[in-house]
Amino acid sequence: MRPPAAVLLDLDGTVYQEAALIPGAPEAIARLRAAGVRVRFVTNTTRLPRSALRDKLVAFGIPADVADVQTAPAAAAGWLRHGGIRRIALYVAEATREDFEGFALDDAAPEGVVIGDLGADWTYQRLNGAFRQVLGGARLIALQRNRYWQTAGGLALDAGPFVAALEYATGTPATLVGKPSRPFFEAAVLALGCAPGDVVAVGDDVTTDVVGARGIGCRGVLVRTGKYRAGDEAASDARPDAVVDSVADLPGLFEI
Predict the structure, then answer these.
(1) Within a 10 A sphere around the Cβ of 126, how many other Cβ atoms?
(2) What is the pLDDT of residues 98-140, one digit of tens each?
(3) Number of domains observed in the structure of the chain
């Protein structure tokens, strides 16, 4: 595969797995950067703000600035501001609320209901509260709709099943702002200043990472780490351009 001008690199399951670094990730990223390949970290995680993700990368020995990280919550905040929505109900991890600074948190009469991954904090009462808010006229905004993610204890439900439950119960389709939405990837490529054809997206989820990126003309590489399961590459509508064992294999794939 010809070397790209830039790489959109997924984080959880690709660069690291929760608190464990994927072996060879820092060295691979350093080699890409040394060869002039720009790296932007793109993630659907809704449990941590961009500042915390930057700190996590740095702690793993991967230099990064907050501006190098694009997240679904940050994309949602931009979408809400652009749409003039100021009063919101947030269903996200406590740490992620800093990405929504400046919005009025209103559970009584919100204009928008923002759904992220609450993990074990999802309860019937919270889900029912979101249901009633959407019935009351609030927009339903999905930070992401991943079906599941890989934890140290095995696969776990992600935000997607809860978004689907609210869509079904309310009859209201959610607006998706994270991967694999077209605006998310377009914003990532725009930030890099590259043509889509010169960008490669890399991740462990063929639908979220590969299909979404290829939808705007990028190339896609699937890694066999994280949530990857044998046969994922054959089950997608958009086959990846390449499949590698891990992010450590990227320099070799690009002959760097």
Answers:
(1) 13
(2) 899 999 999 999 999 999 989 889 999 999 999 999 999 999 9
(3) 2
Domain that holds residue 172: 84-176
Same domain for 170 and 131: yes
Q: How many whole angstroms separate alpha carbon 188 and alpha carbon 194?
A: 10
d(CA 26, CA 194): 23
User: CA 233, CA 128: separation in Å to the nearest integer?
Assistant: 36
Count of CB atoms situated within 10 Å of the CB of 146: 25
- Please check whether residue 26 is in contact with residue 60, taking contact to mean a CB–CB distance below 8 angstroms: yes
Model pTM score = 0.86
Residue 224 lies in a domain: yes
Q: Distance between CA 4 and CA 139 in Å, rounded?
A: 38
- Residue after which a domain boundary falls, among 176, 198, 231: 176
Residues 89 and 140 in one domain: yes
